[in-house]
Design a protein that fits this description.
The complex is a heterodimer of chains A (107) and B (115). Chain A is an all-beta fold. Chain A is built from no helices and eleven strands. Chain A is globular. With 115 residues, chain B is mostly beta strands. Helices cover 0% and strands 49% of the residues of chain B. Chain B contains no helices and eleven strands. In chain B, strands 2, 4, 5, 6, 9, 10 and 11 form a seven-stranded mixed β-sheet that branches. Classes of the chains: A mainly beta (107), B mainly beta (115).
């Protein structure tokens, strides 16, 4: 199974800061990584597909990068609505897996 | 617009079989795959199974022996069955459009396994 390790587990920031969330794969997965945001008691929302491809309706402050084993979700100038949990997910292998998540919280 | 809605029993006894239905609208099951993903209370996401637009299926290998996914295209429904339920199967069960990544999600249905 491909294991995705997200770091940090929790990130405390103030609105207006820019942040980077990391997702590391246990083996090379090309760009088969996708990012989701999940707010409390809501369903996940797709933010980025295939490492860096934007999704219609998602604010431009969200961007993704990386390939191989190291991936990053960047949020330029965090807004109050961005405080939630972020998950990465791989589709390289037929057994899809998610990372454990990074919680973005208000400092 | 694209919508997915899960339905099923909220409470299931241990060792019994769970049957969940995902009813979709705004897209065709013959054009898009649908997956099931679950989330235990306070924990992360786990992909369970997918049915592709052509009707082929994929399962989480850790759960495969207990799972069955199928669809009824005339009703725009995807069905998930899981047998031999245990308390660790207690979770929110989501269906989502897509078989590689998931661009639309249902609201989820909470399933509690308890006697």
């Amino acid at each position: 199974n491909i294991v995705l390790t997200q770091s940090p587990a929790t990130l405390s920031v103030t609105p207006g800061e820019s942040v980077s969330l990391s997702c590391r794969a246990s083996q090379s997965i090309s760009t088969s990584i996708h990012w989701y945001q999940q707010k409390s008691n809501e369903s996940p929302r797709l933010l980025i597909k295939y490492a860096s491809q934007s999704i219609s309706g998602i604010p431009s402050r969200f961007s993704g990068s990386g390939s191989g084993t190291d991936f990053t979700l960047s949020i330029n100038r965090v807004e109050s609505e961005d405080f939630s949990i972020y998950y990465c997910q791989q589709s390289y292998s037929s057994l899809y897996t998610f990372g454990a998540g990074t919680k973005l919280e208000l400092k | 617009q694209v919508q997915l809605k899960e339905s099923g029993p909220g409470l299931v006894q241990p060792s019994r079989t769970l049957s969940l239905t995902c009813t979709v609208s705004g897209f065709s099951l013959t054009s898009y795959g649908v997956s099931w993903v679950r989330q235990p209370p306070g924990k992360g996401l786990e992909w369970i199974a997918a049915i592709w637009s052509g009707g082929s299926t994929d399962y989480n290998s850790a759960l495969k022996s207990r799972l069955s996914i199928s669809r009824d295209t005339s009703k725009s429904q995807v069905l998930l069955k899981m047998n031999s339920l245990q308390t660790e199967d207690t979770a929110m069960y989501f269906c989502a459009r897509g078989a590689y990544y998931f661009d639309y999600w249902g609201q989820g249905v909470m399933v509690t396994v308890s006697s």
